[in-house]
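Researcher: Re-running this chain for the archive, since the previous output was lost when a drive failed. Same request as before.
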Amino acid sequence: MSDERLIETPHGSGRLVVRRARRPIAALLLSHGAGRGIDTADLLALADALPREGLSVLLWEQPWVRAGRKVASPPATLDDGLRAAAATLRVRTPLVVGGRSAGARSALRCARGLGAAGCLALSFPLHPPGRPERSRLSELEGAGVPTLVVQGERDPMGRPEEFPDPLPAGVSMAVVPAADHGLSVPRSAPVSQQDALDLVVESVLEWVVRDLVEPGADAAPG
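Model: Regenerated structure tokens:
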């Protein structure tokens, strides 16, 4: 089941595209990065596959994209938009907030305040390209909820080995072989693009079920 609606925020109207599971066990509210909207391959793969597995997926398109602007609005406005979208939800299952790149950063900043059970960070931009000294690790450490990072092996904004070992408490990581910041893989990679997207879907599904749904299964509302 799918529908979409416009949601007003302090910075204009955004768009929420909803892919509902028939018998949901969790819901994922996901936003996009600073370069594109919700039509990226990873977000679409999650929205296509997860509802069949009992996870509803809600893709949040920020007002700056809907307005046709080419440059993302400031981080605080992204947080306002995410909060506005979350305020419209009436979910009775665990809520995961997340997104890719800038959307992941926004979700990490907002997760605890939104009462989320977890946070999904696709291609977390640990630092700007070529500037490892400008670390954003504090956002990952400060999420305050269980977090899954899905990171490309060749991501110029944070390769997996640039993250601390061990990872901050409550943080897990899934690595996509040969993938860049967009989770795209070259033709010469040991995995195909479809394999990479399947790995993203499988990693998210396993994490949600294992870490967020099953531990609270007895207490979670139906």
